[in-house]
């Protein structure tokens, strides 16, 4: 059975992937920068630390990807941050993501890399800006 009928919804499904990924990514930033939700790991970080800097990158790129503004650049930076984070934090414990708890970092890295390659999909500021600049 083929699901070719789904292809007509590709821009909207891509946008949903972008939005849900960004919302999940923002949770990590909120924990590091604001300690929300309470009890989340790694918890509130001191200003200027490496994890606080990671939180700033996650917050800025997460918001940009969520809005679909400069999506490709923001997603590329977020993918790079996740690759570095995986090897600096998770990869030091074990090479296996299921053992080192790095599955989320790997998935974020590759989803953001995909978004950097294909763009934001529907419902994005980038798309609205492009449509507004088209000659009529």
Automatic annotation (TrEMBL):
Topological relation to the membrane, as annotated: Multi-pass membrane protein
Keyword Repeat: no
Hydrolase is among the record's keywords: no
Keyword list, A-Z: Cell membrane, Membrane, Transmembrane, Transmembrane helix
A matching Pfam family: DoxX
Principal cellular location given in the protein's record: membrane
Domain of life: Bacteria
Transmembrane segments annotated in the record for this chain: 12-31, 43-66, 73-89, 104-125
Family: Belongs to the DoxX family.
PANTHER family reported in the protein's UniProt record: BLL4328 PROTEIN, OXIDOREDUCTASE CATD-RELATED
Protein name: DoxX family protein
Organism per entry: Sphingomonas hankyongi
């Amino acid at each position: 059975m083929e699901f070719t009928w789904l292809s007509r919804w590709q821009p909207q499904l891509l946008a949903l992937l972008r939005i849900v990924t960004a919302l999940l990514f923002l949770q990590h930033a909120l924990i590091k920068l604001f300690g929300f939700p309470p009890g989340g790991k790694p918890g509130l970080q001191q200003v200027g630390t490496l994890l606080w800097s990671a939180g700033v990158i996650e917050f800025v790129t997460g918001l940009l990807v969520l809005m679909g503004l400069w999506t490709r650049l923001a997603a590329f930076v977020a993918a790079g941050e996740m690759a570095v984070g995986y090897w600096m934090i998770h990869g030091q414990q074990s090479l296996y993501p299921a053992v080192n708890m790095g599955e989320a970092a790997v998935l974020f890295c590759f989803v953001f890399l995909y978004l950097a390659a294909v763009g934001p999909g529907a419902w994005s500021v980038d798309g609205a800006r492009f449509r507004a600049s088209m000659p009529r």
